[in-house]
Write a structure and sequence with these properties.
The chain is mostly helical. The chain is built from 14 helices and no strands. The chain has one domain: MFS general substrate transporter like domains (Growth Hormone, Chain: A), CATH 1.20.1250. Helix 4 packs antiparallel against helix 5 and helix 9 runs antiparallel to helix 12.
């Protein structure tokens, strides 16, 4: 792949995470201002993931069979429509319908953009190449909420969402410049054969566990920062910016580490262990600086786990069917996000915004530790 085409992928991935987190970081606060209950907030946030579960797998398969590039453009249009409608509608049921549209668009971009990139790059130095794309994502993850917090604090939520719509339209335009991949002959048997491998099944289990911690964060982290720790919206944006910049610094080194010979799944499990420990520690933060230190160590684990899950997806699945299989992996992760976001809404209502982090930290730590012992034993055998 040429450098110019790699840059287009980089910018598309950056803008996706930039606009996605520019709004999502404050969506619980916006819904709170709409007088949604904690349970409704958790359900609405989780609904975005549920809509992804329903359609992202068919979209992934369709992209393999028809055209990844055109399917990506369609997803980007849905993503932009989500922001546009969010500036108009404010009642609970209308917002739920809009969130479904946004979930479909976001999932299509996330899955197809990554799978198309993996199809077009070769396997040499794959860790570094995937890290390059993740670099754009982390920069977007950090800078989106920073700008969003400024716009929200200064001009209000509607103005912030309108700017997100403008930036999301750039993704539509960039998708037209991407290189397409040749279609494949469709066969359910081939996809079924792909997912029967033991390593693939184990990867699915780990991705599900990884998804639960995203569900806890998406429904609760902004509320924890604002209502429990007492941060202002600009400070919330600063936290996201610092974490995004930190992960952007870490990911190239993680990519180099991935390209060196190592045990399969080891870095993913180590990442989950680090992440879960400091997920549990998050509610103990009482100041901006304390929260930043805890979350920066937490995101060291996230960086390893997220990157290796994508690298292993490319490693275990045939390149020609990466759209459908990446869609399956994404479905598993988003089903976990939906389940734990909805569960976190209930925990928030019953015990406050700290409880989802305690519960999720213990759960992910226990699973990862058992899995790490299993991998170590299998390696020794």
């Amino acid at each position: 792949m040429s450098r110019s085409r790699s840059v287009v992928f980089f910018l598309s991935y950056f803008l996706y995470f930039f606009t996605f987190w520019m709004v999502l970081a404050y969506l619980p606060l916006i819904f709170k201002a709409y007088d949604f209950t904690d349970k409704q907030i958790g359900f609405a946030i989780g609904l975005s993931s549920l809509s992804s579960i329903l359609l992202v797998l068919p979209l992934g398969v369709f992209s393999d069979y028809f055209s990844p590039k055109r399917t990506l453009t369609l997803g980007a249009i849905c993503f932009s429509g989500y922001f546009l409608l969010l500036t108009i509608l404010q009642d609970f049921y209308s917002v739920c319908a809009v969130v479904i549209l946004g979930g479909v668009g976001a999932a299509a971009i996330r899955v197809i953009l990554m799978s198309l990139y993996l199809k077009l790059i070769d396997s040499t130095g794959r860790g570094k190449k995937v890290a390059f794309l993740h670099l754009g994502g982390y920069l977007g993850f950090g800078s989106g909420p920073l700008l969003g917090g400024y716009l929200y604090e200064t001009f209000g939520a509607t103005h912030m969402i309108k700017w997100a719509f403008v930036f999301s339209m750039m993704i539509v335009l960039l998708s037209l410049l991407l290189e397409d991949a040749p279609p494949v002959v469709f066969s359910f048997k081939d996809y079924k054969k792909d997912i029967k491998e033991p390593d693939v099944l184990f990867l699915m289990a780990l991705v599900f566990v990884l998804g639960t911690h995203f569900g806890a964060e998406q429904s609760s982290i902004s509320l924890l920062m604002k209502d429990t720790i007492g941060l202002e919206r600009k400070e919330i944006g600063l936290v996201f910016f610092a974490l995004g910049a930190w992960m952007a610094i870490l990911v190239p080194f993680a990519g180099i580490l991935m390209d060196k010979k190592h045990r399969v799944f080891f870095l993913l499990l180590v990442g989950l262990l680090i992440s879960s420990c400091f997920q549990f520690m998050t509610p103990f933060a009482s100041t901006l600086h304390g929260l930043l230190i805890i979350r920066m160590i937490h995101t060291m684990g996230d960086t390893l786990a997220i990157l290796e899950s994508d690298v292993l997806t490319a490693h275990f699945f045939p390149a020609a069917r990466l759209g459908g299989n990446s869609g399956l992996i994404f479905c598993i992760r988003t089903s976990a996000i939906f389940a734990f976001a909805a569960f976190s809404g209930w925990l928030n209502h019953a015990w406050g915004y700290k409880m989802p982090f305690f519960v999720n930290g213990i759960m992910v730590f226990g699973f990862s530790l058992i899995a790490l012992f299993y991998i170590g034993r299998a390696f020794r055998t």
